[in-house]
Amino acid sequence: MANSSDNILANGYSIFQGSDALSDFSQFVDNAGKVYSSIHLLLDENVEQLCLPVLFDKAPSLNNCSLIRTPSGEINKNINTVVDIWKRLMEGGANRNSLLINLGGGVITDMGGFAASTFKRGIDFVNIPTTLLGQVDASIGGKTGIDLLEIKNQVGLIKSPVAVFVIPEFLKTLDHQQLKSGYAEILKYGLISDKRLWELAIDKYAALSNYQESTWNDLINRSLVIKNEIVLNDPEEQGLRRVLNFGHTIGHAVEAHSLKNDKVPLSHGEAVAIGMICEAYISSKVLNLNSEERDEIAKTILSIFEKYDLSKAQDTELLELMKHDKKNQHGRKNFTLLKNIGEAVIDQQCDDVLIVEALDYYRNYGKS
Questions:
Q1: Beta carbons of 318 and 359 less than 8 angstroms apart
Q2: DSSP H helices in 36-172
Q3: Around Cβ 91, how many Cβ atoms within 10 Å?
Q4: Strand segments (E) across 10-97
């Protein structure tokens, strides 16, 4: 298979990223038809309309695959949907030598990876992320999973795909809100590991309404390199990999609240953006992140993401949701916090009083 300069060697598989990714995928499918007994493709209704025709055009041998359709949205990322995927695999004649291609955003790659990894004790799968969030985060690193009782990713396992194809062209199918959701993760990578990426992401944001593949390739590649290096050093999330969870302890709780209570729930990225502001405040109290950087983080994020009315969420509800965070240890809430922009520290604890202070910092930010 052709190997372009943007391709990244991950933990036992390759991430094909950039302008050559479509042709790389076409070659992969041609070969897969000779290797696997059957090929199945998981997607939702939006991806089927906007992205599948591009794959069929560039990889015509994919037309022979079996399509497994599932409804879109985080609300469907649950065991009932996985059972339906398993049934569809069985009905399509899938066996241990079958391949599942997950075409979609983070919900599809998380859920499809989990379904594949547990069907007949595990079949191979490929991720083709179609959202910015999927391209820079969700489809990379081997995490698979589903939500339980409206709490994020409570059931799952770590299992690597056989390949990931990151195709920037699919970003043209996204609206501005979807792009912003993924942009939160790019900002996060800058905050935890690379101050230059943080600055570049701020500088480039205004220009992203006009699609420029070179701009996206640069931001995506920098993000993928950061995540891949972290995952390679801690594939099972026993230590360093927890650095990727900055903004997620509070963010996941806010996301779960919104999913349960809002007619139009927050996206994952919108919730993480709130979490990053709150956890930057905690960082200023626990690790002495200076107040100028703390306020720079809040000001920058709120210039991109609309302020959410967090007054609708009770502190007791959010604290209860945080109890279910997978990083918690010995009953204590566990955070990844910032020492400086570009430098994060894992396994930091704080009491509930400080967490409530951080929530209030977000609620009151910008008020006179």
A1: yes
A2: 45-50, 52-58, 79-91, 106-118, 132-133
A3: 10
A4: 14-17, 38-43, 66-69
pLDDT at 325: 78
Contact indicator for 92, 138 with CB cutoff of 8 Å: no
Q: How, if at all, do strands 98-104 and 38-43 pair?
A: parallel
Residue 315 exposure: Cα atoms within 13 Å on the Cβ side:
13
- Tokens representing 169? 């062209």
pLDDT at residue 250 in the model: 97
- The type of residue at 313 is A
234's CB contacts (< 8 A; 6+ apart) are 240, 241, 242
SS3 call for 20: coil
Residue 285, helix vs strand vs coil: helix
Q: How far apart are CA 163 and CA 177, in angstroms?
A: 28
What gap in Å lies between CA 69 and CA 180, rounded to an integer? Answer: 26
Q: What is the CA radius of gyration of the chain?
A: 20
Q: With contact defined as beta carbons under 8 Å apart, do 36 and 67 qualify?
A: no
Report the alpha-carbon distance of residue 239 to residue 252 in Å, rounded: 20
pLDDT, averaged per 10 consecutive residues of the chain (368 residues), comes to 64 92 95 96 97 95 94 95 98 97 96 98 97 90 92 93 94 89 95 96 80 81 94 89 96 94 94 98 98 97 95 95 79 92 96 97 90
DSSP-derived secondary structure for 286-310? HT---HHHHHHHHHHHHHHSPPP-G
The residues, ordered by sequence, that sit 6+ positions from 100 with a Cβ below 8 Å of its Cβ are 40, 41, 42, 68, 89, 94, 112, 115, 116, 119, 123, 124, 125, 126
CB 101 within 8 A of CB 126: yes
Pairing of strands 163-166, 124-129: parallel
Strand partners, 335: 348
Angle at 237 between CA 236 and CA 239, to 5 degrees: 125
> Rounded distance, CA 110 to CA 54, Å?
22
Q: In which residue are the tokens 């059957």 written? A: 38
Residue 245: what residue type?
N
CA atoms within 13 A on the CB side of 50: 17
